[in-house]
């Protein structure tokens, strides 16, 4: 990141913090479940090829350190935690460099490549969602040992729970392999995933969670990887993927509405990512970007994980000029804008 762009991002962050830290928020911790959009490095400790613990990933992170985050720097959940005045990063649960001293203020159980569907995680050889929940139960026990039962229960009750996944279920499972598509129409598969999301929220609620934000799907058809598939159509967004994302998001919003009525004391919100990312992709210059259709790393059209590496000569010099870092994942600057949007729209319910 050159000096000018680094200063510009720092000024954005400072402005954001000034707006929100002054608001008293009884949120002592941020607890995260999901996929690569929120994985802080758990996959570093999983036997999978879905990793990003090598350069150029993390080249704009603290000490230019690749952490396993699928970004050139921090991800949206890091910025949310910082904006709430908690800490500037949320550590990965499986990272041995951290312990309960760190995890009291926030932890990520997310695993890149996973989804709602257990088959998705099996295909990618990553942590399934049910296992993320088992890690959370283990974390609860450790928390009670560390803080004592009463204080631990208070922290867990007041913590903010963030859930972000679903894209891999469609792009790396349903549309990539014939198993689910042979037995489910796209509408049936959407409903299948919605049922899992509903049950997962109920499981969290039964374990004491009350402040929960669940993200919808992004405009999947506008990810650089998918636009590359439409090469002969002019690299336009694949609208059938975007249509599925919008359909799924509407169903997820209905789940949020119903569970708020059914579960006493819950404060459950839907966090939109579709519209803000669509706006950024369609109008990159209005958000301070120069490139919206491809990523910074390598050619930016199909590379991610091991295909995005420091040996590739095509990687851009300034990632914050790009909406995307690799062919799927946003750049640090985009992650910041998404986090800012989430706090200003959905997360205000908790402030």
UniProtKB/TrEMBL annotation:
Keywords: Hydrolase, Signal. Transmembrane segments: none annotated. GO terms for molecular function: hydrolase activity, acting on ester bonds. Residues 1-25 form the signal peptide. The keyword Signal applies. Belongs to the 'GDSL' lipolytic enzyme family. This is SGNH hydrolase-type esterase domain-containing protein. It comes from Artemisia annua.
């Amino acid at each position: 990141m050159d000096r000018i762009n680094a200063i510009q991002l720092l000024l954005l962050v400072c402005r954001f913090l000034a707006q929100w830290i002054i608001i008293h928020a009884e949120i002592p911790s941020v607890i995260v479940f999901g996929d690569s959009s929120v994985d802080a490095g758990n996959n570093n400790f999983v036997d999978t090829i879905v990793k990003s613990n090598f350069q150029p990933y993390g080249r704009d992170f603290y000490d230019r350190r690749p952490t396993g985050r699928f970004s050139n720097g921090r991800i949206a959940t890091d910025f949310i935690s910082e904006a709430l005045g908690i800490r500037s990063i949320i550590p990965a649960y499986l990272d041995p460099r951290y312990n309960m001293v760190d995890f009291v203020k926030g932890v990520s159980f997310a695993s890149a490549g996973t989804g709602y569907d257990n088959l998705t995680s099996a295909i990618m050889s990553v942590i399934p969602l049910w296992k993320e929940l088992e890690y959370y139960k283990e974390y609860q026990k450790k928390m009670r040992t560390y803080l004592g039962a009463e204080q631990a229960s208070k922290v867990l009750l007041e913590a903010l729970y963030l859930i972000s996944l679903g894209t891999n279920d469609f792009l790396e499972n349903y549309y990539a392999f014939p198993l689910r598509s042979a037995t489910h129409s796209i509408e049936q598969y959407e409903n299948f995933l919605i049922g899992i999301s509903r049950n997962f929220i109920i499981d969290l609620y039964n374990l004491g969670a009350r402040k929960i934000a669940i993200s919808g799907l992004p405009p999947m058809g506008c990810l650089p990887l998918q636009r590359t598939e439409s090469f002969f159509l002019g690299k336009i967004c694949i609208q059938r993927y975007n249509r599925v994302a919008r359909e799924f998001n509407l169903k997820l919003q209905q789940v949020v509405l119903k569970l708020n009525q059914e579960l006493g004391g819950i404060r459950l919100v839907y966090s939109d990512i579709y519209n803000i990312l669509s706006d950024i992709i369609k109008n990159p210059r209005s958000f301070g970007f120069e490139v919206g259709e491809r990523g910074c790393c390598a050619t930016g059209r199909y590379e991610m994980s091991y295909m995005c590496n420091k040996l590739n000569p095509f990687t851009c010099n300034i990632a914050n000029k790009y909406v995307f870092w690799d062919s799927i994942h946003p750049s640090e600057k985009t992650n910041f804008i998404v986090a800012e949007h989430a706090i200003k729209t959905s997360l205000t319910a908790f402030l």
